[in-house]
Each structure stands twice: as C-alpha cells, then as structure tokens.
Amino acid sequence: MIRLENIMLRQGDFELRDIQLELAAGEYGVLMGRSGCGKTTLLEAVCGLRTVAAGCIILGDRDVTALPPAERGVGYVPQDRALFPTQPVREQLAFALVLRSLGQAEIAARVEELAELLGLGALLDRLPDKLSGGEAQRVALGRALAHRPSVLCLDEPLSALDEELHDEMCQLLERIHCETGVTVLHITHSPSEAKRLAGCHYRLANGRIERDE
After folding, report:
1. Distance, CA of 205 to CA of 17 (rounded, Å)
2. How far apart are CA 127 and CA 130, in angstroms?
3. How confident is the model over 75-116, as pLDDT tens digits?
4. Is-contact 172 165, C-beta < 8 A?
5. What is the DSSP letter of 170?
6. What DSSP line would sit under 85-109, residue for residue?
7. Which pTM was predicted?
8. Would you report the helix, strand and coil content of the chain in percent, each value rounded to 5?
9. Considering only CA atoms, which of 208, 189, 177, 150 is closest in space to residue 31?
10. Residue 122 carries which DSSP code?
C-alpha cells in the first residue's frame, strides 16, 4: 500500500503542496501528467531520494517519511536505468543483497532466481555496454526486485523501447505483478500503456493528483 498525506515538495522555484494519493496493497497504479509537472519528483520522494517539506509517506503499515531509502522496502527503476558501468549483470542483480549483508549462498540463489524470471541467464557476465535496450531494462528491473520489495516504483520504464520490445516488457511487467503481488506505481505518458497495465489511474495536474475513473 502507498499513501501520501498532505505532501509538500520544493525544488528551486517548483513546488507541490497538499498532495494526496492512496494505492491499495497489490494494486498496479499509473501516474500520468505533462512533462515537468512533478511526477518524477514525487516518485523520488516515495523512494526516499527526495526529502519532503511536509506531510507523511505511508508504505504498508509504516510511516517511512523519515527513513532512508534502504529501509523503505521500495524497488526503484529510474528513467535512465542507472546501471553501474563497470559491474556485470550478476553483480548488478546482487547489489542490494550485498548492501544488506546477506550470505553468499543466499545471494547466488536469488540472482539465479531473478535471471530465470527475467530471461537473463545468458547475460550474467556481460557489462551494461554490451546489453541491448530491452536487456538493460530487464537488468534494472531485476536489481529493483532483488530484495523482494513490497513497493515497486517505475519511472517511464518503457519509453525508450521500440514497439516489439515495448510489448515484450509489458508482458513481463504483467507477469511480475501477477507472480509477486508487489504494489506498483508506474509513471508513463502513454494512455495505451496505462490502460493495458494498470488497474488504477492517477493524473498529476496543477499541483494536484486526481484519480481517473
């Protein structure tokens, strides 16, 4: 579950105030709105990458407003993927687990599980510059899912993909949501993508979030 209560965010001259949003546990929600309206800023606040000036962020049954990113139980795929250029796929997938000091056997087993889920088995020793766009997006998704988050935040994850890869990734996101039950908040500019993937549709406009029926 994601609940935003009276959130205020400031970035230079830009400000969002009194933002309200509620997404039930296990739902797939899409947030739309014009460029520059604050969608990414809001997503970063949920992840703990941006400090809110006021209000509360509730994830599940916890107020995480003051918690650092690693303690929020959120997986995040930024728009640029942000893969580590010198790490092979295997290490990218293991990154969050190493940070949490899991044992080597547990990390290896989870990496293999993710590789099977995302079709990355043949790519585990490749560096990011040897991956296609679709492959890199799957790695970014795997890295976000590695620590079994209860919430997954996606910032336009399909915007740079061609039509065939876009459909493939939509199928993958549908399957991951079905199999894991993770609560998803997904930013997109595509109405067709939103209609296909999400059960809940939100729009950020004029500093307010409205739920589309």
Report:
1. 12
2. 6
3. 999 998 899 999 999 999 999 999 898 999 999 999 999 999
4. no
5. H
6. TTS-HHHHHHHHHHHTT--HHHHHH
7. 0.93
8. 40, 25, 35
9. 189
10. G
In 102-197, DSSP assigns E strands to 151-155, 183-187
Q: How far apart are CA 154 and CA 208, in angstroms?
A: 20
pLDDT at residue 213, rounded to an integer = 60
pLDDT digits (tens, 9 = 90+) for 23-59: 999 999 999 999 989 999 999 999 999 999 999 999 9
Are 30 and 55 spatial neighbours (Cβ–Cβ below 8 Å)?
no
Residue type, 141: L
Q: What tokens appear for 176 in the block?
A: 């991951």
**What Cα–Cα distance (Å) separates residue 74 from each residue in 32, 51, 77?**
20, 15, 10
CA-CA-CA-CA torsion for 7, 148, 69, 174, nearest 10 degrees? -50
What whole-number distance in Å separates Cα of residue 92 and Cα of residue 34? Answer: 32
Q: How far apart are the first and last CA of the chain?
A: 19
Distances (CA, A) of 112 to 1, 77, 131, 162, 168: 28, 20, 18, 28, 21
